[in-house]
Design a protein that fits this description.
Shape: globular
Radius of gyration: 20 Å
CATH architecture of the largest domain: 3-Layer(aba) Sandwich
Number of strands: 13
Number of domains: 2
Distance between the termini: 51 Å
Strand order of the largest sheet: 3-2-1-4-5-6-11
Bound molecules: NADP nicotinamide-adenine-dinucleotide phosphate, ligand G4F
Strand content: 15-25%
CATH superfamily of the largest domain: NAD(P)-binding Rossmann-like Domain
Number of helices: 10
C-alpha cells in the first residue's frame, strides 16, 4: 500500500484528492495546521480513513519530522494562502506560506528522502496579464498579484529542485476549478450560494466586483485526478490543466440565476469594494499536453458545473431551513 502525504487536506482540493487516493488503495496522511477551533467540514465524512498529523508550512522541523515518521512515497503540496484579495492585504504572509512554504517542503524531501515524488499546486494566476491566448506550458508568465508572484516562486523552486537534486518534482499549472466544496469567498461559490438564498427568500441582492473578468472554470474532482497522473509518469514534468473554454463572471451569473428562473439584473449590484488593485482579465488554458501525455480530459462542462453548484447550495439551504423549523416546534 503506497503512502501519500497531502498538505492542505482540509481545503477543497485536499479533500477530493484524499478521497481519490483512498479509492486507489493509498494510505493517506493529511497535514493540518493547529487552529483554536478545528474545521474538518470537508473531510469529516472520511476522517476515519486517513491519518491526520499536525504540521505547518511555516515550520521546517514539523515537515522533516512528518516525512521521517510516515515515509510517504508521494507528497502533494496543496497548502497555501490561496485567496487573491488577501494576498494584496497580507503580501508578506502570502509569500511565507505560498512561496517559501514550497521550499520548506522540498528541502524536507531533499534531507529525508530525495526519492519521494512531489506535486506542487501551481496556478494559472502566474500567467496574469496574459502574453499568449490560450496559455500553455511555454507561455511567458506575468503575475498580477502577490499570490501570483508567490506561486511563480513555488513553480520555479520546484523546477530548480528537480534539476539540482534530481527530485521527481512536478508543477501542475491548474486553471480555476470549482465545486460545492469551494470556499464561499471565491466568486463561483459566492454566486451560487447567493442564488440559492435569493431563490429561498433569504437574501435580496448579490454584491460583486468586476463582471468582465474571464476564467477557464473546471470541476475540482477532475483536477485532482490530473495531480495523481503527473506523479505516475516515468519522468517528472509540468502540465497545464484546464478545460480550454473561457467564460466571464457575468456569464456565470446569468447561467446561475437562469437555472432557478430569476433575472440576474434585478439582484446583482456592482460594488467597487470587490475590485482588485490589479486584475487578471482573461484566462483560458490549452490542456493538449495533459491530454496527450496523461490521457487527462475534463468530464464536466461549464453549464453542468454551474448547475451542480446551484443545486448543492439549494439543497444545503433547504436542509438548514428544515432543521431550523424543526427546532422551532
Ligand atoms: P483552499 O481550499 O484555500 O485550501 C488551502 C489549504 O491550505 C487548507 O487546507 C488550509 O488549511 C491549508 N493551509 C493554509 N496555510 C497553511 C499553513 N501555513 N500550513 C499548513 N496548511 C495550510 O485551496 P484549494 O482551492 O483547495 O487549492 C489547493 C491548492 O491549489 C492551493 O495551493 C491553491 O493555491 C492551488 N490552486 C487552486 C486553484 C483552484 O482553482 N482551486 C487553481 C490553481 C491552484 P486551513 O483549513 O487550516 O485553512
Ligand atoms: O473566484 P476568484 O476569487 O478566483 P481567482 O482570483 O481567479 O483565483 C482562484 O483561481 C486561481 C487559478 O487561476 C487560483 F490559483 C487561486 O488560488 C484561486 O483559487 O475570482 C475570479 C474572478 C476575478 O477576476 C475577480 O475579480 O472573479 C472576479 N470577481 C468579481 N466579483 C470576484 C468578485 N471575485 C471574488 N472573489 N468576489 C467577488 O465579489
Amino acid at each position: 500500500m503506497p503512502t501519500a502525504l497531502i498538505t492542505g487536506i482540509t481545503g477543497q482540493d485536499g479533500s477530493y484528492l484524499a478521497e481519490f487516493l483512498l479509492a486507489q488503495g493509498y494510505k493517506v496522511i493529511g497535514m493540518v495546521r493547529r487552529t483554536s477551533t478545528i474545521n474538518f467540514d470537508r473531510i469529516r465524512h472520511f476522517q476515519e480513513d486517513v491519518e491526520i498529523v499536525q504540521g505547518d508550512l511555516l515550520d521546517q522541523m514539523s515537515l522533516i519530522s512528518i516525512l521521517q515518521e510516515y515515509q510517504p512515497s508521494e507528497v502533494y503540496n496543496l497548502a497555501a494562502q490561496s485567496f487573491v484579495p488577501t494576498s494584496f492585504t497580507q503580501p508578506v504572509l502570502t509569500g511565507e506560506f505560498t512561496a517559501l512554504g514550497v521550499t520548506r517542503v522540498l528541502d524536507a524531501i531533499r534531507i529525508v528522502d530525495p526519492t519521494i515524488r512531489f506535486y506542487q499546486a501551481s496556478s494559472s494566476e502566474m500567467f496574469g496579464k496574459v502574453q499568449e491566448v490560450p496559455q500553455r506550458e511555454s507561455t511567458p508568465f506575468y503575475p498580477r498579484s502577490p499570490y501570483g508572484v508567490a506561486k511563480l516562486y513555488g513553480h520555479w523552486i520546484t523546477i530548480n529542485y528537480r534539476e539540482s537534486y534530481d527530485i521527481f518534482a512536478c508543477s501542475g499549472i491548474l486553471f480555476n476549478h470549482e465545486s460545492p466544496r469551494r470556499g464561499l469567498e471565491f466568486v463561483t461559490h459566492k454566486i451560487t450560494n447567493a442564488v440559492a438564498r435569493i431563490k429561498l427568500g433569504l437574501d435580496s441582492e448579490l454584491r460583486l466586483g468586476n463582471l468582465e473578468a474571464r476564467r477557464d472554470w473546471g470541476y475540482a474532482p477532475d483536477y485532482v485526478r490530473a495531480m495523481w497522473l503527473m506523479l505516475q509518469q516515468d519522468t517528472p514534468d509540468d502540465y497545464v490543466v484546464a478545460t480550454g473554454e473561457t467564460h466571464s463572471v457575468q456569464e456565470f451569473v446569468q447561467e446561475a440565476f437562469g437555472f432557478v428562473d430569476l433575472d440576474w439584473e434585478k439582484y446583482v449590484v456592482q460594488d467597487p469594494k470587490f475590485y482588485r488593485p490589479a486584475e487578471v482579465d482573461l484566462l483560458v488554458g490549452d490542456p493538449a499536453k495533459a491530454g496527450e501525455r496523461l490521457g487527462w480530459e475534463p468530464s464536466v462542462s461549464f453549464g453542468e458545473l454551474v448547475r451542480l453548484m446551484v443545486q448543492a447550495d439549494l439543497e444545503a439551504w433547504e436542509r438548514r431551513l428544515k432543521q431550523a423549523a424543526a427546532l422551532d416546534q
